[in-house]
Amino acid sequence: MTINIRPVDRSRPEPLWHQAEQTLRSLIANGTWPDGTQLPNEGRLCGLLGVSRITIRHALRNLEEAGLLRREHGRGTFVRTSTVTAGIRGLTSFTQEMAERGLVVGSRVLELAEFPASPDVASALEIAEGEPVIKIRRLRAGNNQPMGIQTAFLPTARVPGFLDIGEPILSLYETLKTRFGISPRVAREIYRVGTVSAEDAPLLEVEPGSPAFIVQRITSDARGPFEYTVSTMRGDRYEIRSRLQL
What we know:
- This protein is an alpha+beta fold.
- The chain folds into two domains: about 15-80, Orthogonal Bundle (Arc Repressor Mutant, subunit A); about 85-240, Chorismate lyase (3-Layer(aba) Sandwich).
- The chain contains seven helices and ten strands.
- The strands form three sheets. It has a six-stranded antiparallel β-sheet with strand order 4-5-6-9-8-7.
- The longest helix has 14 residues, at about 15-30.
- Keywords: DNA-binding, Transcription, Transcription regulation.
- InterPro entries: Bact_HTH_transcr_reg (IPR050679), Chorismate_lyase_/UTRA_dom_sf (IPR028978), Tscrpt_reg_HTH_GntR (IPR000524), UTRA (IPR011663), WH-like_DNA-bd_sf (IPR036388), WH_DNA-bd_sf (IPR036390).
- Pfam families: GntR (PF00392), UTRA (PF07702).
């Protein structure tokens, strides 16, 4: 593989590992290194960038923790730009998560309608069973790769006229903030291991029964819960990492 990489500039104030990380990140972002590309070994990267092994390892570790690379023991380091890494983080939307990882977010509305709240939805939103709720079912993607299917429920009373917006829903949180003055303050999430249903499998481009993360989120503002979302995320494109210490 022919690679044109400019060595780091030692006259610049930024740390060498940061310059190396940004150079590698740009190669991934601009498609020079697409999904699945195996990176040159550490020795060659050191020579191309003009840095030490300690410096290149720092840069690679940061990119791996950001979900852009994966290391396979005995094989090497590979690009994995279509992976979302979940862990300890702030309260963000899917759109924000994609942007933070340098991925182009995609969203397709599969269903947008009003329904009476089921017992589970009513309990999550702290409303009476049967009260009207808006259901938004969307296929979410990163860099044109299907990542998951999210189904959100909103109390109709909190979002009057939501069905009349008449525009694609990319960032739900941004729509709620700009149109209805609703800003999330806290959310509770539950992750469990599950499988992709026969209905969702064609949309996610996997076989029915493929492994998935099932994520439930209840999001609240000062007035209480305003969103209940159930997501099915592809197991090969979504992972959870935690940093533990004493």
